[in-house]
Design goal:
Helix content: 40-55%
Structural class: alpha+beta
Low-confidence stretches: none
Mean pLDDT: 89
Strand content: 5-15%
Length: 516
């Protein structure tokens, strides 16, 4: 005969396990709306007795082992899929990167909105129209000549404004990047402290189990960290987590150390440079940090030093500067500025400075004499010197003098020149109008490309998030079914305990009594 209370012990454990399963179901339902909560379950196993032959009881035919010891639990685990977590974090980094790039490019687009038809195109056309109107008048018509100066001034002011606003975008995102690195470093410190808590709590758990709520908190941090750069994660036997970003360790769970991300002064260096506290430069495959760096340092064909070939803020800033520089170069040369600086139509705000969109303005000599562009160069045989004056045609028969606007007509012809080279690396060759369209189209194409990447990444992230929720997120229907099953399990076990009690009562109080 088996030990008397063996069945009671088995049913006691059964009731305990049923109660624990109901508790965990209740916990899942309670946290169904808790951000980052991972569904939990009780890992059950069937009790057994092995390697102890004396734990048996004899029957007429054979010795039976004491089987049927009931149920027990290894512990409470989380239901997570590491592979889905890894894919989700990889794709959310791409989503964050492209979102940041689209946002920055959209801010540039807002500055040069309708660049082709209203902004730069419009003011360039106004300058052209003023020159054309002047060409139809006598070159000494100062009122019409003044209109040319005014329209050229308006064009310069627009370029100045573009430069100011693009710099505002540039420094806004540079400061935003600096704040982002500070936030990441604060997160790393919180994760380091959390690792310490996990290690202390893990001492009270079996090897394969741990403080699930602390794991959830850590995974929330890792999910956010994944939006900033491509990360890889390792969980150690002591329950702590180590995280690498861009192949460099930033959180060491075993040693309890962090490796902060630093940023060199943007205004001093003129480029965004991120590096780790340990000295390595930050090179990411994806993430919003990469989006910041690529857009701030992206200078296309103008890239030098630490800049890159993306069409970012630096490139469109360079493109506007190149338009201003080329405008000044072409018209200054056409008006004779190469031989006589006093003939320059455009100049920088400081003598000898490189002309940019930020400093271009109408030259002082043109402001003083609006009809300067109506004068042509001539040679005075009496003095042997060159001078400038209005182009005169004298009728030999009547002696009548007619003034020609030949220099203004030559200036106008520069708008039809389709061989003007823009950019140090000859980014484009064509007319001023064609260059305006080229830059506008390049911006639109870049935004379209990054938007397409972003939309694809969003779809992928949503699919992976749904897949992760299907596995890890509590569901009312599933938890309700489990609750009813565990409740029936508890009731049946309770009834079996009652049956065992009746059997024991019969054994103790009824054995040997006749008639009972």
């Amino acid at each position: 005969m088996r030990p008397t209370f063996l069945g009671f012990e088995a049913q006691k454990r059964t009731l305990q396990m049923a109660q624990k399963c109901i508790d965990i179901v209740g916990n899942n339902i309670s946290n169904i709306n808790t951000p980052g909560y991972t569904r939990q379950r009780v890992d059950l196993y069937s009790m057994y007795v092995a390697g102890m032959p004396n734990l048996g009881w004899n029957s007429p035919s054979q010795t039976l082992s004491i089987a049927g010891q009931g149920v027990n639990s290894y512990g409470v685990s989380q239901i997570r899929d590491i592979y889905i977590d890894k894919r989700y974090r990889a794709n959310v980094a791409t989503e964050s990167e492209t979102e940041k790039m689209v946002n920055i490019l959209s801010d540039i687009e807002d500055i040069i909105d309708d660049f082709e038809y209203e902004g730069l195109q419009f003011f360039t056309q106004q300058f052209f129209n003023a020159l054309q109107a002047y060409s139809m008048e006598k070159p000494d018509s100062s009122e019409i000549a003044t209109l040319c100066v005014n329209n050229a001034t308006n064009l310069c002011k627009l370029l100045n404004q573009y430069s100011i606003e693009i710099k505002q975008v540039e420094y806004t995102y540079a400061n935003e990047l600096k704040d982002t690195t500070s936030h990441i470093n604060e997160m790393l410190e919180e994760m380091r402290k959390l690792n310490d808590r996990i290690e202390k709590e893990k001492l009270h758990y079996n090897d394969e189990y741990g403080p699930n709520e602390l794991y959830d908190e850590m995974n929330l941090y890792i999910d956010e960290l994944a939006t900033y750069g491509n990360v890889s994660v390792v969980q150690h036997a002591n329950g702590t987590f180590s995280v690498d970003m861009g192949g460099i360790n930033i959180l060491d769970g075993l040693k309890g150390r962090t490796n902060h991300i630093m940023m060199k002064d943007y205004e001093t260096n003129g480029v965004a440079i991120l590096f780790f506290e340990s000295g390595e430069e930050l090179n990411l495959e994806s993430g919003s940090l990469k989006g910041y760096v690529d857009m701030l340092n992206g200078n296309g064909v103008y890239a030098t030093g630490r800049q890159n070939g993306y069409y970012g803020v630096a490139y469109f800033k360079s493109a506007i500067d190149e338009f201003a520089r080329t405008l000044a170069r072409v018209f200054n040369t056409a008006n004779g500025g190469d031989d006589d600086p006093a003939r320059n139509m455009f100049s920088a705000d400081k003598e000898g400075a490189l002309i940019t969109a930020g400093n271009i303005h109408v030259s002082d000599s043109w402001l003083r004499d609006p009809t300067m562009i109506g004068k042509t160069r001539y040679f005075d045989p009496n003095t042997g010197l060159y001078g400038y004056g209005f182009d005169e045609i004298i009728n030999e028969e009547t002696g009548e003098v007619t003034l020609q606007n030949s220099n203004v007509l030559y200036l106008i012809s520069q708008f039809d020149n389709h061989n003007i080279k823009f950019g140090n690396a000859h980014d484009f060759s064509g007319s001023f109008y064609e260059y305006i369209s080229f830059i506008s189209n390049r911006l639109a194409e870049t935004i379209s490309y990054e938007s397409s990447r972003y939309e694809t990444a969003v779809m992928t992230v949503d699919i992976l998030l749904d897949a992760r929720d299907d596995i890890s997120a509590p569901d009312f229907d599933e938890e309700g079914v489990d609750m009813m099953n565990y409740q029936k399990w508890f009731s049946a076990s309770s009834r079996l305990t009652t049956t065992l009690d009746d059997m024991l009562d019969k054994l103790i109080n009824g054995t040997g009594r006749v008639g009972l």
